[in-house]
Here is the input.
Amino acid sequence: MTYDIAATSRRCTRTGRQLQPGERHMVVLYDRDEKLVREDVSMEAWQTPPSDAFAWWQCKAPAVDANSRLIIDDGLVYDCFTRLEGQDEPQKVNFRYVLALWLLRKRRLKFEEVQKQSGSDWLMLREPRVKKMHRVLDPHLNEEAIAVAQQEVETMLRAA
Here is the structure.
């Protein structure tokens, strides 16, 4: 299953105002009919995270000619990872699993063990600095599904 996430429109969806290059604004993703829908919201129109939001984060509007290399904000990845904790919808479980793999690769999380419970495998991951443990369901994605999910994560981050 793939999710197309639109790139920034460079326009506040609530006020219609054009976002200026470098201007801080909020990005909100909604899960609507198994599609991730993006909304860019200017800081003056932002109040609180919507209760039905899949994820949200703050970013800067890109320059119009921004074709530069993608720089991934590990804090943003971690934020999305923690917000998805406890979600049981398959697409969110898959998304969180891939975010966990990303954070493992970046050494923001350390692998401790796999726990088996009710026929499911749970990765036990530790934050090295604060010793906090995270439990992540292993959805047993095949290589193709992981590649698709990684592309979705990259698309989301590029859209940031």
Observations:
- The beta strands are 24-32, 35-42, 53-60, 110-117, 120-126, 133-137.
- Helices lie at 74-83, 90-105, 143-159.
